[in-house]
Amino acid sequence: MKEKEFIYVGSYEDVDGNYILKVGTTNNLIRRKKEHNRNYRKAKRYTMADNSEFDYIWTHPLSKYNTLRYEDKTREKWQNEEVGEYIRNDRFVCKTKPTKVEVVIKKTYEIYL
Question: How far apart are CA 58 and CA 110, in angstroms?
Fold first, then answer.
């Protein structure tokens, strides 16, 4: 049986009070969350606040090929919609927290933040 991968939407708050929204893929949600918490606490820009933690808002299992394809489509969609300022590692810096974002995978998933 093939292992499932996940596309996910997650977020954290940075030291300047910005809401950081991320779209990504992984085959292990627990491990990836730990990596985000460790790495974003040490990031030079948009450093995770001490009282914050990376949290998943939404996850969806797909094949590896499809997770990467829909991650790219979601990133492009959010950039076109100007959800926030796009920064490296598929993150968006939002001065104010959006009410919702959408991910389209055959159907549209409305993700309320």
Answer: 10
Q: pLDDT by residue for the chain (113 residues), tens digit each?
A: 467 899 999 999 999 999 999 999 999 999 999 999 999 999 999 999 999 999 999 999 999 899 999 999 999 999 999 999 999 888 999 999 999 999 999 999 999 99
Query: Residue 51 CB: number of other CB atoms within 10 A?
Result: 7
3-state secondary structure of 32: helix
d(CA 27, CA 93) in angstroms, rounded, equals 25
Residues in CB range of 2: below 8 A, 6 or more apart: 63
Q: Cα dihedral sign for 88, 91, 92, 93?
A: negative
N-terminal to C-terminal alpha carbon distance within the chain: 34
